[in-house]
Amino acid sequence: MTGQPKRYCVIGAGSSGICSAKTILDAGGNVTIYERTDQIGGTWVYTDEVGNDRYGLPVHTSMYEGLKTNLPKEIMGFPGYEMPAQPASYVPWHEVLQFIRDYSAHYDVTRRIAFEHLVEEVRPASDGTDGWSVTVRQLASGLRTTERFDFVLVCNGHYHTPVIPTYPGGECFLGKQLHSHDYRKSDIFRDQLVLVIGAGPSGTDLTLEAAKMAKTVYFSHHVPEKLKQLTFPPNVLQVPDVLRILPECVEFVDGSQHPVSVIFYCTGYRYSFPFLHPDCGVQVDDNWVRPLYKHVLNINHPTMAFIGLPFYVCATLMFELQARFCVTFYGGRLSMPDRADMVSDHDREMNGRWSKGLKKRQAHMMGAEYQGEYYQSLAHRAQIEPIPKVMTDMHIDSGRRKKEDLQNYRNDVYRIVDENTFVKYDISEVVCASNELTVESHSS
Q: Which cofactors does the annotated protein need, by name (predicted)?
């Protein structure tokens, strides 16, 4: 880069924002990270707070006390900076949080973060350039400032704005209703009759959480294969979709009724970017953020990027790959893609998804079918190093194991052999081997 370093605005200091900032610094850019809370970590931060924080803003994090990762730590690091070695592959949330903070400090990112700064508006600059006008409010003082940036990377995550369905009679229910966003500790389920609605990753994990304390858990969903594949504790009963809610019970679409004292919505989140001015040219339609080139670049204003929208992915590795993809063009190593090419690529991919019966809310879904090809397409287009195949393979294997053995899959231990190969053990084998080595070293 020549002349003055380009100015980058990163919105959010979670794992996607931190690794994006590190990538920008590596390329010689000047970066400011705006973070609305007082600490690094995004969704990995735990707080007992629910509802609104001390500034009257909705609490951002959805972290609960007993969470363990649902992916092996071996695919949760960054290139050149892996999570610390230990016997287990599935680790508690606080270890991931510490890892992100250590990563930020190691690469001198932390001092670039403006904490407790709320981004209120992002709009194209009025000077006729491709730059951006970003207005932020310092929460403690209320002071508003507007800064001009050459590039904006939106890294605010997508597990913060809950989707709560409505059912006939819901307003008359006499028990407790809450969304997983506001769940913190399992004590609230002690001796309760709990209805869990939703069969995504949080729904299955939180059904297990509720079952530890509840008398009975009713797991409601409309995914038939779940009935065949998932094995729950004996106090969990799988039931179909909710038809209506009565004051003290719930009726399901098969006509059955069950008494319920807690309704627990594990029904996902809405992608939300309230700070984007309409002139940014981005629309969100049932969680389909468009128009984006390769799920990242704003086709209408490609100096804006979104990091981390795709789901069912090797998340941190994908964040880092997407950031390198952006900086390749923003830093000038390659020319920005032609608009017509971006539109053609976008339309081709989306039409392929629609032809397979996917819905708008699945526009950014990857998983076993799409993620490997997606990582390769980013790397190929930007002429950068891809994510090693072994990472995708471990991700797919982990998902398969969760379906096979929901209660015990976190006992699996993964070890990487090379870029194409991994091995897998049970945690008891690893601990036993570690103990034997310890005894041998003490006796020698």
A: FAD
